[in-house]
Here is the input.
Amino acid sequence: MKVGLRIMRNVKKQAVAPKTIPILREAFDKINDTEIRWLSSAGIMINSHGTVIMIDPLLEGFDLPLLVEMPILPKDVPSLDGVLITHCDNDHFSRLTCKNLAPVTKSFHGPHYLAELFAEEDLKGNGYDIGESFEIGNMKIKLTPADHAWQNESSKYSKIRKYQFEDYCGYWIDTPDGTIWMVGDSRLLQEHLQMPEPDVMLFDFSDNSWHIGLDNAIKLANTYPNTELILIHWGTVDAPEMNAFNGDPKSLNGRVVNPERIRVVAPGEAFVLKK
Here is the structure.
């Protein structure tokens, strides 16, 4: 099977995500399985039997033009049991989004550095070590390692602080219906190739030196040949010169084992995980 039936290209030759499907209020109700929705960019919403979280929600206020409509705005979110943030980049930790979600969110979670940033915004936040676990409702969540400290090579951001390896993470999420792994923005680490096989991987395939890179993304996918791959971090941002935002799902054609597991979902579209 070839990837590409749901992919459009704009005049700048960027691959663009399928048309957004709005997330309605009933998506937050108690259900009998686990639903995963891509929010666009690297954002994810998970509803597992009525426990609802978001990961890296960027729903408003980004400083670059977008190619897609947001599937939901913070003002329309009725409640969240938690928000997980992988790292400080503004396409992952959207301060405006999180501040506007705060009135309906029980708690925010991330590495210890993120907890410092939560405090700056008066967000009710918790910080963790890499490898540490916590629970939200019926989900058991563990921080997995990520290598993404690109700011230390930036003349602008390296003056702010020295960014540490442990400032970045992914999330391993155990639900009643199976496991979900948000790898996060990261170069490929040996630890990534030694995980138990997850049921679903939230799959960044950006061909960028501070992301996984296309070849290593394919290596990771083929290490877990039965894992469903929900494509993220592509088709959202109108910045053709920035390869971190311009993964092309067609580049996976012929290279991923069991290609039927590659999921090109629209922002807001539900992927159902069942036992």
The CA atoms of residues 21 and 268 lie 5 Å apart. The mean pLDDT is 96. The first strand starts at residue 8 and ends at 9.
